[in-house]
Amino acid sequence: xxxxxxxxxxxxxxxxxxxxxxxxxxxxxxxxxxxxxxxxxxxxxxxxxxxxxxxxxxxxxxxxxxxxxxxxxxxxxxxxxxxxxxxxxxxxxxxxxxxxxxxxxxxxxxxxxxxxxxxxxxxxxxxxxxxxxxxxxxxxxxxx
Length: 144
Ligand SMILES: [Zn+2]
Description:
alpha/beta; binds zinc ion; globular
């Protein structure tokens, strides 16, 4: 008699990174519609004396995993933990990307997913990322 497999920290079937490259080729072309890959976005920054630096990313990833759970056409990419937090740089522990760098990263990652047949969806956990995400979306839109 087979025992059920122990629970993984990431629900099987939801994680993009647990797939192999051949898996992604099959997955991207399996359905009528493009499958979705959610890219959780966060920030490493101060959140007062009571919350850890990485909370924005963890919340975004948790929401993404909940949304994708049981959805054959959705996967969750490895979260991108760093964001735009210049306004918090005076607090120790805050690590911020310049807007140009952050926009370039978002455009590059989403372009990779789109070129491989996926519909990339950014799921943001940090308000300070909004303007850069909007610029990245506009840039991606202009590229088709
Ligand atoms: Zn934040």
